[in-house]
Amino acid sequence: MNHGGAASRVDNIRRSLVHLKMPRALEMLDATLRGIEQGKIDGIEAIDILLNEELSLRENRRIKAALRMARLPIIKTLDGYDFSFQPSLDRNRILALAGLDFINRAEVVHLLGPPGTGKSHIATALAVEAVKAGKSVYFIPLADLIASLTKAEREGTLREKIRFLCRSSLLVVDEIGYLPVTPGGGNLFFQLVNARYEKGAMILTSNRGFAEWGDVFGDPVVATALLDRLLHHAVVIQIEGSSYRMRQHADLLPEHARMAPSNNPPPLPKRRGRPPAKEKPDLHHG
């Protein structure tokens, strides 16, 4: 093939890459052709390089967009978590969760422990793994979730809001117990949990044990109904230890605050099926 014919074919390739919207392959074309001319790669390898570069670009774009839609406050990874600082935490158990089988089984993962022990870090890191695997994710603190549901109820769009929150394969509800739940908020959260029950996975983080959820939600009946569903198909991870954020200033803290007390949850209740409808508490009043 003469030089003019080769140049014409390269121009055709460039135009085709533009029409196919393959910017990364177009960017890498000249360097790849030089590799062929220098005998470093053959034609098949060149095609493989160009396609892999383009696929990598598209995958990175997909992940970036999905992370933005997930509303993660910050990107965290399991590689960035200091397991050595929390010896009570089973690293292998967390890595097993990163396999994401719990999402396929529509299970609920509870991350319990004192403030600063890395609950939100782990929840966020698992959410990032889910996004990378192509799962839809939505992350929201409980206070923001209750405010959103309350607004939807006031505007008559609660059903649509709950339907929207049920679309994600994984819903992460952060900071349960950090702020008081507004009156009626527990009922709204129950409606969401009930709608996702056995249909969509969740990760919940809390600094309060399950026995305290009656105080957290301001209603022991609502708390019991919530736990009935949230503990049925559940993985409970208890993190004990001091605050990771305060590790460099531990000597400035009072003695009782240097090591937070254990927040061990009670054993999972034995479930023998749901009670008849007439025995369920009325959880749909405002």
TrEMBL record:
Pfam families xrefs: IstB_IS21 (PF01695)
Biased composition (Basic and acidic residues): 276-286
Residue ranges of every copy of the AAA+ ATPase domain listed in the record: 105-240
Keyword presence, Transcription regulation: no
CDD domains noted in UniProt: AAA (cd00009)
SUPFAM superfamilies in alphabetical order: P-loop containing nucleoside triphosphate hydrolases
GO terms of molecular function: ATP binding
Superkingdom as given in the UniProt entry: Bacteria
BP term (GO), one: DNA replication
UniProtKB keywords: ATP-binding, Nucleotide-binding
Bilayer-crossing regions: none
Keyword ATP-binding: yes
Region Disordered: start-end pairs: 256-286
SMART domains: AAA
Record-stated family: Belongs to the IS21/IS1162 putative ATP-binding protein family.
PANTHER family membership: ATP-BINDING PROTEIN RV3427C IN INSERTION SEQUENCE-RELATED, CHROMOSOMAL REPLICATION INITIATOR PROTEIN DNAA
Database matches in NCBIfam families: IS21_help_AAA (NF038214)
Protein name per the record: AAA family ATPase
Lineage: Bacteria, Pseudomonadati, Pseudomonadota, Alphaproteobacteria, Sphingomonadales
